[in-house]
Enoyl-CoA hydratase/carnithine racemase (Nonomuraea maritima), 290 residues
Amino acid sequence: MIRIMAFSEIAYEVSDRVATVTLRRPERLNAFTHTMRAELIEAFDLADADDDVRAVVVTGAGRAFCAGADLSGGGGTFGRRGEGETVNGAPRDGGGTVALRIAGSLKPVIGAINGPAVGVGVTMTLPMDVRLASETAKFGFVFARRGIVTEAASSWFLPRIVGIAQAMEWSATGRVFPASEALEGRLVSRVYPPGELLPAAYALAREIADNTSAVAVAAVRRLMWSGLSAASPWEAHAADSRLMAELGGAPDAVEGVTAFLEKRPADFPMKVSKDMPPGLPSWPDDPYRV
């Protein structure tokens, strides 16, 4: 069964337990707007609330993934205030609201970067768990060439993904680089011919959906992301231990072991909507979200 939700600048579809979010302004190379920002946040809210969704694939319509912020408003584009949201009195960066919502996702997120991903078009992908790219994709942290700073919390995400030296090289030069360099710099995991990108993304999503516990994957995702800021492996060990104690005797663990011993596929009964363990590491709700 395929379910489609109506949006104006993105498409949201659920099929075979995978949600597909498609940036959909192909005539503008899927340039980012306030409307797209709000719709992306709503799409991830929908995915988290739907127990039938086991993974999310994000891609772009047409020949681009996202060409960055829509600059059709001219030179004052970045000087305009947002839609009433502030951080410590300053107008809030719209790309950051999307990045933080993706970071808080309970479902694993796969970026299928089908073409140019520049500015917010690349920084929004950083909190995605896996980034796959087409051979035709190009990337650019172009902010310094526009007289602004890296946004969407990319000063936190990017160095943790590719290291500080690579992050500074790409951000200080602001140059656009090909998928091959993104792969070499570990920004993306794999590069595919254009026609093979989405099938590869869906194959990965279905491997998750068909073989794993939704609650376990959500807990692992939280452990991994919150662990990037853990003070030590001892702190991570404490978080692991809490969740092992809470989930080790839970129905999904019983089913996982029983299915293995009986040499059959597991049918995990627990639901993300109601069965998440209380010891999940803190990854707070967005304190600035209105």
Remarks:
- Residues 3-209 form a domain with the 2-enoyl-CoA Hydratase; Chain A, domain 1 fold (CATH 3.90.226.10).
- The chain is about 40% helix and 15% strand.
- The first helix runs from residue 34 to 49.
